[in-house]
Design the sequence.
């Protein structure tokens, strides 16, 4: 099938590459000319495991193309996917400028009947707005063609995006009528497709993220209580996780959630509540707990160093908001680094892939290392912020020798307390 994807970001490029891998003929377009030029040279501007291989392979065999101008790639196209960004406005509402501009672009250029698929995360009602905007543009041109619209929110996770897209738990598709289902079935054939109406599909995406963020904040809140009353949160986690009604996933306490989705989507849902005269009390608490959680490691540092971090060498392992991505958007590392800089600490950082993103954000205010032990050199304290696999069993001997001290703060609770004490570390966890 001939498909166009608007937006060559994390979702658009993964969607395009995976559809091409399934045998479709895909053109991905973006307004960022530099991004498109690099993609034509098979260079992906962000880190996502296996993505560059898929881009190169499908580009080479001629199933994946990159364009700037939508008008150049509409011949025989059956579906256009909108996968542009929906960042937060200052008040927390979803900013729909990119989505609305992409819709106008479709309306200005399309010359035949087409299916428009909305992949971006958008508030309830947006798909209808998109349809109206496309129709307005068609009316201006006096073109009488038919536009079908579906909402197909994306649930991929950064770091495992290809795997998630190729093996989804389910594909949600909100439709206005059954006519379009044949095309959707053809596209997503082997997968479990759940058809809903459009508003439900739009809402499902927000509610899924809100539920996951709630589990994280819930466990962090419980962890903070546990630490006050001398209970090990890890044992509590294991104990409740075996209850099949609860399950084991998203029960890990840590230094807070981040990324380009949870924070903005929680904010947007709270705002959708306000707009409709309903206070989303639970989600407000989820957000407040998370904001507080991002400050917890800094508070622990202040206690260790008696409120004086000036000149202290603080080493950080992990900067991305989670492993296997270079995304540092709303990462707990950013909050911590801001506080450490204000307190006058010397900050030495290492991350397997997010160093460049971090350098773009903080410039020469930090010391960057491409080796985890070098980053810990002469450090007064080491903090683990992202649970990358390579941090799970370092050489404790080497680390102790490299660091001036042996204090370790574990922001993700990946180490065993008893073993760490045996290894000679002062070990503090969440
Ligand atoms: N990142 C994730 O893990 C994830 C997961 C599920 C859903 N989502 C949702 O998917 C959507 C896209 O997210 P993303 O992370 O890929 O965003 P992104 O910011 O990485 O990418 C968006 C891309 O769209 C391009 N763009 C903007 N306006 C355009 C236009 N008018 N025409 C052509 N290109 C345009 C931008 O240049 C950019 O390259 C968002 O709504 C997001 O909430 C993201």
Sequence:
């Amino acid at each position: 099938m001939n498909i166009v994807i608007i937006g060559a970001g994390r979702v658009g490029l993964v969607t395009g590459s995976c559809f091409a891998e399934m045998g479709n003929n895909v053109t991905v377009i973006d307004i960022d000319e530099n991004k498109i030029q690099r993609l034509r040279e098979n260079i992906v501007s962000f880190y996502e495991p296996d993505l560059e291989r898929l881009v190169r392979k499908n580009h080479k065999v001629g199933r994946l193309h990159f364009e700037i101008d939508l008008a150049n790639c509409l011949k025989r196209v059956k579906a256009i996917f909108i996968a542009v960004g929906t960042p937060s406005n200052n008040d927390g509402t979803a900013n729909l400028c990119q989505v609305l501009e992409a819709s106008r672009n479709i309306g200005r250029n399309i010359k035949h009947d087409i299916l428009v698929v909305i992949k971006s995360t958008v508030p309830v009602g947006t798909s209808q707005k998109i349809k109206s905007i496309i129709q307005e543009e068609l009316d201006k041109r006096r073109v009488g063609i038919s536009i079908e619209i579906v909402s197909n929110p994306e649930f991929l996770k950064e770091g495992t995006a290809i795997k998630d897209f190729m093996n989804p738990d389910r594909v949600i598709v909100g439709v206005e009528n059954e006519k379009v289902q044949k095309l959707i079935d053809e596209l997503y054939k082997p997968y479990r497709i759940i058809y809903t109406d459009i508003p439900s599909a739009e809402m499902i995406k927000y509610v899924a993220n809100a539920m996951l963020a709630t589990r994280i904040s819930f466990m962090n809140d419980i962890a903070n209580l546990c630490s006050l009353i001398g209970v090990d949160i890890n044992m509590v986690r294991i104990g409740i996780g075996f209850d099949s009604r609860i399950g084991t996933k998203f029960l890990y306490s840590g230094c807070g959630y981040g990324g380009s989705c949870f924070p903005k989507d929680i904010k947007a849902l709270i705002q959708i509540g306000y707009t409709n005269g309903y206070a989303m009390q639970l989600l407000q608490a989820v957000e407040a707990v998370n904001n507080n959680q991002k400050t917890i490691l800094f508070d622990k540092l202040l206690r260790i160093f008696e409120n004086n971090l000036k000149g202290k060498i603080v080493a950080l392992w992990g900067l991305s908001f989670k492993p296997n991505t270079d995304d540092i958007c709303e990462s707990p590392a950013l909050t911590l680094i801001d506080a450490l800089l204000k307190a006058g600490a010397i900050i030495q950082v290492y991350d397997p892939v997010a160093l460049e993103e971090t350098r773009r954000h903080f410039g020469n205010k930090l010391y960057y290392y491409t080796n985890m032990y070098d980053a810990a050199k002469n450090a007064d304290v080491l903090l683990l912020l992202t649970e990358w696999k390579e941090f799970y069993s370092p050489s404790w001997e080497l680390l102790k020798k490299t660091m001036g001290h042996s204090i370790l703060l574990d922001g993700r609770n990946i180490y065993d307390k008893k073993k760490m004490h045996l290894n000679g570390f002062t070990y503090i966890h969440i």
